[in-house]
Amino acid sequence: MAEYIFEVFRFDPDADSKPRFDIFRVPPFKKGLTVLEALFYVQEKLDGSLAFRSSCREGACGSCAMHINGKYRLSCETQVKDLFSDKVVVQPLGHLRVLRDLVVDMEPFFAKYKYIMPFLMPGSPPPERERPQTVGDQMKVLPSVDCILCACCHASCTVTGTDPEYLGPAALLWADRFVRDSRDDALDERLRLVDQLHGIWRCHTIFSCQEVCPKDLDPTGAIADLKRRALRRKLLGQ
Ligand code: SF4
């Protein structure tokens, strides 16, 4: 492979009347070249005005999520060779306002996360030391705590695209994580937050969130769990 052709979404709302794609030629300058490293190459050698986010560069912070060759992914974890194409099309996360190029406004996404109250609400006063959990209780919340809030699921969800107020897969996954936590006693309050017009019932169970999650989490399953709990609460008072 002599070089990769990168087609990169460009838009500066303060200067451009509409978005465009710029084309950059990137040599395979190292083994295991990632899309993020290629974007740094573009920024450092070809066009210093290209804007994108990144931080940890090892799949832990979630800040470099973007749309790459038809799928939402972490650019730091995506090796260009694994795309099986010499053409790489890079676009920003969907359903979030573009601030510039590949940088989107994450505020609405984090506002939904804050709305579901992502912290423990125990019903008893703080103990002298920690609140213990059995291994079995820990297993109930363990997969979901791997969420890095990258918003790939939010961007891939067709419902967040049509209903901007929909809480979305990530916030609902976190709501379910606290509902499952044996140390939490706020089930009624948590279900009240998600059992509403723009909450759990808007999920159409399409599984696109599950398909793109870089941590192999299952927001669709978490939402189904919340639906079951909300129904049980309503019908049986449990
Ligand atoms: Fe990202 Fe997965 Fe968390 Fe969604 S559930 S924000 S895709 S890590």
Automatic annotation (TrEMBL):
Keywords: 2Fe-2S, 4Fe-4S, Iron, Iron-sulfur, Metal-binding, Oxidoreductase. It comes from Candidatus Abyssobacteria bacterium SURF_17. This is Succinate dehydrogenase iron-sulfur subunit. It comes from the Bacteria. PANTHER family: SUCCINATE DEHYDROGENASE [UBIQUINONE] IRON-SULFUR SUBUNIT, MITOCHONDRIAL, SUCCINATE DEHYDROGENASE IRON-SULFUR PROTEIN. Belongs to the succinate dehydrogenase/fumarate reductase iron-sulfur protein family. Its cofactor is [4Fe-4S] cluster; [2Fe-2S] cluster; [3Fe-4S] cluster. Residues 7-96 form the 2Fe-2S ferredoxin-type domain. One of its GO terms (biological process) is respiratory electron transport chain. It holds the Pfam family Fer4_8. The keyword Ligase does not apply. One of its GO terms (molecular function) is metal ion binding.
